[in-house]
């Protein structure tokens, strides 16, 4: 596997090369145009990062990131806590620290007659991912609360997000359940969001903001470099805040969004900032356990593995 590697100097040099050699190097794998890359780009001028240096390795996709992390090619990637818990159940040492609570959204054309989940009856639904996509499983659970069998009532089209986007643009499907940034791009083109991942969870009684994605890394590695890792997370949060509040900082990462028009750039920024993690503690972790139980039952253990509960150590806390 080949990686495009470059270094971002994130420190205020104090005593030349001897000081730089003492910094902890954090090898982090990200997709070149993923939102994590936006945050890392904004992090460059953050003086809080004085005791670490990032080695950024560009990855082709999420699966490549998982392979890189498990093989030891990188120290950290962005992934989800369901995967972390499943690995921990097999004896792995990985853990999770929240990055974003933005997930997916159900989107329809602006003039669509679809205004509720029940309106999807006998419609064609494009679904990004596969049968085990978390948003798809949870949307089915929400429909079940209304005595509506969504799985049996729609014509399903599964595919990668770009393919699903093309399907709705060419009227081959009536609605799409897709990843948040693809949904945001559609919204900027006059499509309408019916419900997002947070709304689905609220409908299922989960009122806490539970992160959908986070930084994943080995707990043993983080314990060896605790100060640098914690400083990285603090710097990362500050960088995200700057992207959401400082127009000058946001303008620097616009090329990474691959959006040429202002409406799309604006909508991407809005949805990205809505995913900020404001609270991360016991209530959110207990809510994650409830979501885990639902997903285990909905997927018949296929998504979570056979463990009845989230594995201890799944979540990392800054101390």
Helix-strand blueprint:
Blueprint: E1 4-8, H1 17-20, E2 24-31, H2 35-42, E3 52-59, H3 62-71, E4 76-79, H4 81-88, E5 94-100, E6 104-109, E7 124-128, H5 134-145, H6 150-153, E8 155-159, H7 161-169, E9 175-179, H8 180-187, E10 191-196, H9 197-203, E11 213-218, H10 219-224, H11 226-245, H12 247-257, H13 262-274, H14 282-298
Parallel strand pairs: 2-3, 7-8, 7-9
Antiparallel strand pairs: 1-3, 4-11, 5-11, 6-9, 6-10
Helix pairs in contact: 2-11, 2-12, 5-9, 8-13, 11-12, 11-13
Signal peptide: 1-20
Keywords: Signal
Protein name: ABC transporter substrate-binding protein
Question: How many strand segments?
Answer: 11
The computed structural class is alpha/beta
Distance between the termini: 35 Å
Along the chain, the helix and strand elements come as EHEHEHEHEEEHHEHEHEHEHHHHH
Weakly predicted, low-confidence segments: 1-20
Main β-sheet: number of strands, strand sense, barrel status? 5 strands, mixed
Q: Which oligomerization state do the chains in this entry correspond to?
A: single chain
Rg, alpha carbons: 20 Å
In what order do the strands lie side by side in the largest sheet?
8-7-9-6-10
Within the CATH hierarchy, at the fold level, what is the topology of the largest domain? Answer: D-Maltodextrin-Binding Protein, domain 2
- The assigned CATH architecture of the largest domain is 3-Layer(aba) Sandwich
In the residues, how many domains can be counted? Answer: 2
- The chain-level mean pLDDT equals 90
Helix content: 40-55%
